[in-house]
Amino acid sequence: MLKQCKNCHADMPEEANICLECLTLCEERQPENGAFSKDSKFGKSTLFSAIFWAIFTFSFCFMVSELNMKLGKIEPADSIGYYESEDTTSNTNNNTNTSQPQQTEMPTNGINQHNNAEKPAKTLKPNSTVISDIKINPTTPKSNTKSPLSTNNIHIGTDKNETLPNKQNSTSQTTSKPNQSTSADSKPNTTKPTAAEPEYDKFQHYLDSDGRLHISKYTGNSKNVVVPDKIDGVNVYRIDQGVFKDNSKIETITFKDSEQYHTLWFQSKSIENCGSLRKITFPKNTDLGILSNFATNCQKLSSIDIDNWQYEFINGGLYYWNTNAWYLYYFCEGFPSEEFRPASFYRGYIDASLFTYNRNIKRMYLNEANYILGFYSIKNTPNPYLEEIYIDKNNKQQFDVDGVVFNYATNQNPYISLSYYSPNKKDKSFKIPENVRFGEIYNPYLEELIIPKTVTFYNEKTVKNICIKQKIKNLKTIKVQKGSPYTNIIKGTFTGTVIEY
Description:
mainly beta; 501 residues; six-stranded mixed β-sheet; four-stranded parallel β-sheet; 26% strand
């Protein structure tokens, strides 16, 4: 049977004491015929069930009403702008993918490997208002320090172009509000400098019998020269000898990246006697042929920017891969270091002529597979500023004693012999190592020479020339070990002090 609630007049079971519609407590009804007495199990269970469902219904309705009040209408995630998008503009410089023909694979020790273009970096859309203190830097182009893979760095709170606060302002920085907006004046200037345009009309040029375009002379007056990749629609094939000669104004030379892959040759002395030249940038997407001594007597040249599978520029040296081995091909005359260390992957000879005009290199440190070639122990050496050469102890061809180089014996030359004693070595005393063949040297600093009895000379004339100070003008003392076959010659010829030991 049913009854009506006195408050809302809703139908409710005869035995219910609480209205489920308005949750009003009704008057307690007396049980009939003892069926719902207080001692009845059936009566107790029915009462408890009604109370439980009333509480549950009330709680559910309360939670729903509270959520509606707090949240209101729920918007989709896209409507507030917090999502990632593919940024195709910030990585333009870094992700340029130029097709090149299949080339011989290079060694992997220390050499750049050219991978496919990376995917564009994901960045927050500019209209995002969710995380306002995250600034995303554009990808920086690859530099000369050869790092083959570029990364997109995300800096939280500080842009890499911003100046870090000093100690006095550190407190105000740390106590600022998390999402405090900054003024437009505090934002870093991201405007890119205007790139120099190629000077198409400032180059004399001609076509050879095969229709290939040669540049023969630069006639412009710019400090920063940009050489076009093509002139009158024809790809530039060769930079002839003397194109940049006796030009004291040029500071940088940039060869424009090729729009169409083609071969570009650089003749020997194509850049010559350019006293202000500091940097050369070679083109990308180009099959380069760079002949030796392409730049000579450019005493401020210290940097070469090159991105090519066949060339590497490391610590002042330009290395060339001929598909079989690496060669140290060129050394910048203005490279500022006093020390030269070949790249770890280079296993060949060090040509003295590469350092003829470099006035900074004083010492060389060669690895176990390097050896010197063309270094002379005479006054007119091609290296008038080099003082000492040090060689790894595991080298099987040459060794050094205090920076003086000796050759190991070979089948062609059965003697351990002097290879290079620098005319600029500053030591005043030198002891010739045991069991070597010594020769004439030129050095204005040496004052004492020590000769063990196991030392031999090429001939007696060599010993006499040392004794009469023909090339060692400041030599004052010769110490010769007893038993040396040259003792009498030295005593009878040398005008300084002779000491037997």
